[in-house]
Amino acid sequence: MYESYTRQSLPTKKYRELLGSAICVFCSNNAFLIENIVKTDSDKKWYKLIDEMSGRLKEIISETISANCENTEIENLFLDIVNMRNRIIHGFRITSCNGEQILATKTRGKENSTQFEITEEYLLDFIQKNQKLSDLLYAYREQYIG
Questions:
Q1: Residue 86 pLDDT greater than 90, yes or no
Q2: Which of helix, strand or coil describes residue 105?
Q3: What is the pLDDT of residues 11-43, one digit of tens each?
Q4: Which of 75, 70, 40 has its CA nearest to residue 57?
Q5: Distance CA 114, CA 141 (A)
Q6: Total-model pTM
Q7: E strand residue ranges, 16-141
Q8: Alpha carbon of 105 to those of 37, 81, 85, 101, 116: distances in Å?
């Protein structure tokens, strides 16, 4: 598929819509997570945290949100989502087995890495996990921050 703004072939509109939605919900949750961290510990600064790579927030989440609610559900789900996001962002374009333009990725590592397609199902799963994270963050804010 082609669009007037590029001569490069593109995935279907639906795929691009899911891909865009996936990026948007992640960005929203990343900022909301940081908001919860800052409201949990006023010594943490939004300007510093927003520039931090998402995967490097683990320790900060652990010492603020996880410690405050005495469980690691938010922390673990966020890290799972970050790993999925990394596979999307570090993906590469392929022509799928069905002849469609999509993204593919591979797990990290020089040996025993696995290559796989980033399917619409993968993107939907990513979006659904982000919805669950959003729900958990809202519940955390309501219960622990007020």
A1: yes
A2: strand
A3: 999 999 999 999 999 999 999 999 999 999 999
A4: 75
A5: 38
A6: 0.93
A7: 92-95, 101-106, 115-118
A8: 31, 15, 11, 13, 6
